[in-house]
Specification:
The protein contains twelve helices and 14 strands. It has 374 residues and is α/β, with parallel strands linked by helices.
């Protein structure tokens, strides 16, 4: 005798969530913050989403694109997860998106900003809860033009994220009447900036836009200040220039202006409650990566609720996710037709050891999602 119908049995089995995030290497802390954010939201719902228990499967992606396809297939084929969540490194995420498209596995990207994921590689089953590289960069270009700058230069590592960020700044700055005279690049992860700083000093632009992160951001900001350029040529960047790097940058970072979809002092009831609960649970302060993981769980719940908790009812899950308004600590956001957040981009300035919110650079900014055809 059957003890339950097929549907009833399906409703009582856990939903398999495959976390493919960096657990070692340069981005290990970012992966941990994303995972903790995701699990915090689930915990706040009593350990369930839409009444369904959650079972986690984890793979360390090592931020290595060469291993990405094999790693994601461990979750898709071996563990047969219902949904993939990952990752930080854009090169790895692009491989994940390709595998998700080919296997029709639900994918939520909680960080990697590669434009193509919700651009040319967009798919009905692929969603993002973070940003595109274009978004904060475009907003910074708009701000720099509004500040009266007419001539600017960009500088970044010569790889996808850096080049896409520089292009976003060019779009925003030139739309506002400015002109980017030169795009300076150096090989990743080279941090020998002196020759390029000399070039900047010789050309005397009105402003410089830089895309670097982590240790590279620390050295660039310090070298820029040591060369005395910060006294005459304002330095701008996306939030990654100063997020997680302020303490190491020290005095050189003070006053730096950046743009991002999150800031340290939003001081809204939603964000304050999130930050308090995160700090109590994990004994550390939340950051933009924790927010993006938290919102990945929220987005999944929206889809599950629309499908009555049935993860196998893919059309309803996807429709529920696509039409949701996510009540994020960053502020409420919706998703574009390409499944990328349509979100406020904040103007921030370094003050002490925080990225202080100074205002909203652009409200409800949507990525143009070039090449997206679903």
């Amino acid at each position: 005798m059957l003890l339950c119908s097929t549907l009833a049995c399906a409703q009582t089995t856990p939903i398999k969530v495959g976390l493919m995030l960096p657990a070692t290497g340069t981005y290990a802390n970012l992966g941990e913050m994303i995972e903790n954010g995701f699990k915090l939201y689930v915990a706040e719902q009593g350990g369930k989403l839409a009444g369904r228990d959650i079972q986690y499967f984890k793979v360390d992606d090592e931020s290595d694109p060469a291993k990405a396809t094999d790693n994601v297939n461990k979750l898709i084929k071996r563990d047969q997860v219902d949904v993939l969540v990952g990752t930080v490194h854009s090169g790895v995420a692009l491989a994940m998106a390709k595998a998700a498209r080919e296997s029709n596995t639900l994918l939520i990207v909680p960080n990697a900003g590669a434009d193509a994921i919700t651009g040319a590689m967009c798919a009905k089953n692929v969603f993002r809860t973070s940003f595109t590289n274009w978004q904060p960069a475009y907003a910074m270009g708009v701000v720099a033009a509004k500040n009266g700058h007419k001539k600017a230069m960009t500088i970044t590592w010569n790889y996808a994220a850096g080049n896409e960020s520089a292009k976003g700044f060019v779009d925003g700055f030139e739309k506002g009447g400015g002109k980017v005279t030169q795009n300076l690049t150096l090989a990743f992860p080279n941090v020998e900036f002196q020759a390029l700083l000399t070039e900047i000093a010789a050309q005397k632009p009105d402003a410089v836009y830089a895309f670097f992160a982590g240790g590279g951001a620390v050295k660039f900001v310090k070298d820029y200040a040591a060369a005395g350029l910060n006294k005459t040529i304002p330095l701008y960047g996306p939030g990654f220039l100063t997020d997680g790097t302020i303490d190491a940058q020290g005095a050189a970072a003070q006053g730096l202006t950046t743009t991002l979809h999150y800031a340290d002092n939003l001081n809204t009831p939603r964000d304050n409650a999130f930050r308090l609960n995160f700090a109590k649970t994990y004994k550390t302060n939340a950051d933009v990566y924790a927010v993006q993981g938290y919102d990945a769980a929220q987005l999944l719940e929206s889809g599950l609720k629309a499908a009555g908790g049935d993860i196998k009812n893919r059309d309803k899950v996807i429709a529920g996710m696509a039409s949701s308004q996510v009540d994020s600590p960053r502020g409420k956001f919706t998703l574009s037709a390409a499944h990328n957040p349509v979100q406020d981009i904040y103007l921030r300035q370094v003050k002490g050891n925080i990225n202080e919110m100074k205002g909203i650079a652009i409200k409800a900014l949507a990525d143009p999602a070039k090449g997206c055809k679903m």
